[in-house]
Fold this sequence. Notes:
This protein is elongated. It is built from 4 helices and no strands. The protein has one domain (9-95). By secondary structure, the protein is mainly alpha-helical.
Amino acid sequence: MAKTNWRKDVDLSLKDHLEMLVESVHKHKNSYKKSKNPPVAQLWCALANMSKQIFDLNLKIKLLEKALKDNMKKPSHIKDIPSKEEREDLMKLAANPKKS
Length: 100
């Protein structure tokens, strides 16, 4: 039975991801070829690569969440409700917009 390139039959939604993973694992070929069981070592390299990607993404998410949370806090000098004078000024501006 002739071997075929099984990767060409992978679903299109996964194909690009598979090729990127194979390419990134191939960079470690010198390492996994030294193993007693290179195919298993190759899978471990792929798993480690994916684990690093997940770790990096989680770190980015945490940083973004912190930035959003910090951004949501209002400084103490900012008021939620404008004063009576500020409301009157806003009403005047709305009633008499400057004509350009």
